[in-house]
Structures are given as structure tokens and as C-alpha cells.
Amino acid sequence: MDRTLAADLARLPDLLEATRRTAADALAALDARPVVPRPPASPPHRPEPLPRHGSGTESALTAFADRWAPRLSASAGPRYLGFVTGGATPAALAGDWLTSVHDQNSNSALDGAGQDLERETVTWLRDLFGLSGAHTGTFVSGATMSNTTGLAIAREWLGERLGVSPSEDGAAALGPVRVLSGAPHSSIAKALSVLGLGRRSLVPVPTLPGREAVDPAALDRALAGTPGPAVVVANAGTVNTVDFDDLRAIAALRERHAFWLHTDAAFGAFAALSPDHAHLTAGLDASDSVCVDLHKWLNVPYDSAVQFTRRQDLQARVFQNAAAYLGPLGEHPDLVHLTPENSHRLRALAAWFTLRAYGREGHREIVERDIASARALGSSLEAAPVFRLLAPVRLNVVCFTLAEDPTPARLAALCEAAREEVFVTPTVYAGTPALRAAFSNWRTTQADVRRAAQALRTAAKGTA
Ligand SMILES: *Cc1c(COP(=O)(O)O)cnc(C)c1O
């Protein structure tokens, strides 16, 4: 064994303790440090050369603390409101550490109970979102991968209807495909590109006036004009204004038209936890496939999402990984046959930990506190003459812009000026350049909302 490696092995408990201290210090500093630090003024960073002889874990810890940690964002903290970004609850963090400690490849029954733990966690998540036992689920790395997996199953369903098998014969066997959606997330187009259906298969359907929710009557007409079976992507929580399609109205269209219903509920599914907002997800169970992200509002570390479907048989047709040593699929296929990945870490463990530690009530409280934070920031910005809200705060996102002259350059300057105190990200909504503040971190309090509002007002004055 390499001498440094052997020395590290001999002191492993000490090194874990040093790592624990580094972690605790980083977490304790989250509130005070810049949310997104400014890059150093010194010359641009050049990669350090690969060391010929290493100097061990302790020196790597020091080098990381000196050179990299201060330049990372505080995205684990309470005022990082860009994109839709969750943190990691204490239990989720513990679960994530132990995932690496056990270093499982939880993809088959040949080895340990990893995939049984994953299946138990999936049943908890199904319960959390009000899905019935007709849905099975698998863990994937994020909502993009969940959407891709759901649409891959949709592709196989189209083949079943048309008497061909895209998984055996290729997507071309289907001929032209139409994927109808009101305001789909950008990852849907990416998934269609990956799946050989093509970005152009995505057909936009009009939304309701002044909304991002699809117009069910327009969807009805679009389906009537579609030759052959189609795919509908319903949106349960758009990223700009967190608008929800009427999932029950869409599902009811199946009485007249044949289509696969995929619902992208990446973070909107968590509305099901709040009694005041659960109606937004009514009808979710009728979907043929559902995407939910976990590294957003469940507050587990990156990278984690779940993919639900009512047609695991089609899922296994797409993703089966035939190999002499893996055995037949059977009634409960091993996870290796269900997602694009073969090997994967015991990704479910962080979700298992946080659900086991805090339960439905603990996670309901996080969701409701974040919604209240979004509403409070919305009211505060609405009361400031420099700002204008572009949509009502429907759930956990505030979509706003400058009341006067909201050019992309001015908005970028505002973000830049505020970013050490609060981080928000740019967007364009209904043709207007805008900003989004998204609340999905378990740490955020009303005091953070006041700091964020103050920082945004100050930054806006600076750009006038
Ligand atoms: C975040 C998000 C995605 C993509 O999620 P990743 O985890 O970044 O892959 C897809 N759809 C919606 C609605 C999202 O909010």
C-alpha cells in the first residue's frame, strides 16, 4: 500500500473527526458568509498540477478550505433563492454521509438489501404525494432524468399502440410523434432530444389567459387534430409562476382521446403536503408517469429525484439490461432494469433518513413555512415602488421585476449587487425580463425574508 494511504488508514477515525469539524464549521458559517461570493480580483484561476506524491487527507482538507470552499455558493443556506434549490436537513445529511460509508451499488437482489431500502422509501414518497399503489417508483439523479425516464416509457407505450417496439427497432419505427404541453420545463425538450423523438415533436398548446396553465379546451382541440396516439406533458408547478395545469380536466380528456399522460411535478408535488394547497395536485394519481425532484423541496443533498409510473412492464422493456449474470426480470425487476443507470449509489438513504426523522408533519412544516416566506417577500416587494410583481405568489416563487425600465442589464446588475446577501435568478415571463425568488430551503425564516427584501430594495436603488 502507498505509504500515505496506509498512514491515512491507520488514522481513519481522526480523519473522519477532522472532516466532521470542517463540515460543522462550514454549516455554522452559512448564515454569515456571502450567499454567492464575488470571484477574487487576482488573475484567473489556473488548475494546479496533479501531485506526483500526495500528502494525505488532512492536507487535502486544508487545500480545499483555502482554495475552494470560500468560492462555493451558500446554496445550502437560507437566502439562496435562485432556481429551485433545497438544502439538506440534518437527517438527510447524515443519510448522505452513510451512503458513502456503505458505498453500495443497490441495483440488484444479488447483493444486500439496498434495493429493498429504496423500495421502502418509494412507498413512503408515494404516500406523501397521495399516489395510489398502482404506481411503482425508482430513484434517479434529478428531475431531468425522471422526465427522460417517464417519456421513455411513454415512447414504448406509443409503440404498443402502434404495434411496434421503439426499444427494439428504434424511435423511427413510430413515425412522427406529437408531445403536447402548455408551459413545459426546458428539460422536456432535452429529454425528447435524447430519446430520438426530437425537440420539434414538442407542440405548444395555448395556456389560459394570463396564466401558464394549459387551456383544457385548447388541449382537447389539439388532441382531436393529432393523428394517432399522443403524449401529453402536464405541468404541476411551472418554474416562473408555479402555475398548475388542471390535472383532473386533462385526465378526463382520455375518454375521447388516446394519450400518455406524463406529469412534471418536480417541486409542485409538495403542494400535496399543505392542506391549503393540496387541491393543486388533485388528479396527480391519474398520470401514467410522474416526475418529482427530491433535491429541491424534500431537502436532501444533490442528486436525487424519483420517477413514478403505472406501467413498470413497459419501463423494464426500455431499460432491461440483459446480461448472463443478472438473471430473468421476474415480477419485481431489479433496479438495474428500470432506469438509464446500471450502477448507482444507495441514493434513497438520504430521503429515507429525513422521512424517518421528521415524518409527514416535519416536512409539511417546511413546505408551509417556505410558502409563507414567499408570500411575505411578495407582499414586501409589492409595497416597494421600485418593484412590480408579474404574477400572484401561488406557492413558493416570487416572480417580479423593476417597475421601470426592466432591461436584462439592469436586472443583472441588481442580482450582482444583492448576491452576497440574497441570490435570485433571472428569467423572462410573458416577454418581460424578470427575476425569480424561489423558497425551498428548510432553514429559511421570516428574518431571512426581511434581510432578502432589504437587500433587493437597496440593490434596486443602486441600479436606478
Ligand atoms: C428543476 C426542474 C426540472 C429539472 O430538474 P433537475 O433536477 O435540474 O434535473 C424539471 N422540471 C421542473 C418543473 C423543475 O422545477
From TrEMBL:
<keyword id="KW-0210">Decarboxylase</keyword>
<dbReference type="InterPro" id="IPR015422">
    <property type="entry name" value="PyrdxlP-dep_Trfase_small"/>
</dbReference>
<dbReference type="GO" id="GO:0006520">
    <property type="term" value="P:amino acid metabolic process"/>
</dbReference>
<dbReference type="InterPro" id="IPR015421">
    <property type="entry name" value="PyrdxlP-dep_Trfase_major"/>
</dbReference>
<dbReference type="InterPro" id="IPR002129">
    <property type="entry name" value="PyrdxlP-dep_de-COase"/>
</dbReference>
<dbReference type="InterPro" id="IPR010977">
    <property type="entry name" value="Aromatic_deC"/>
</dbReference>
<dbReference type="Pfam" id="PF00282">
    <property type="entry name" value="Pyridoxal_deC"/>
</dbReference>
<keyword id="KW-0663">Pyridoxal phosphate</keyword>
<keyword id="KW-0456">Lyase</keyword>
<dbReference type="GO" id="GO:0004058">
    <property type="term" value="F:aromatic-L-amino-acid decarboxylase activity"/>
</dbReference>
<feature type="modified residue" description="N6-(pyridoxal phosphate)lysine">
    <location>
        <position position="296"/>
    </location>
</feature>
<dbReference type="GO" id="GO:0030170">
    <property type="term" value="F:pyridoxal phosphate binding"/>
</dbReference>
<comment type="similarity">
    <text>Belongs to the group II decarboxylase family.</text>
</comment>
<feature type="region of interest" description="Disordered">
    <location>
        <begin position="30"/>
        <end position="57"/>
    </location>
</feature>
<dbReference type="GO" id="GO:0019752">
    <property type="term" value="P:carboxylic acid metabolic process"/>
</dbReference>
<dbReference type="InterPro" id="IPR015424">
    <property type="entry name" value="PyrdxlP-dep_Trfase"/>
</dbReference>
<protein>
    <submittedName>
        <fullName>Amino acid decarboxylase</fullName>
    </submittedName>
</protein>
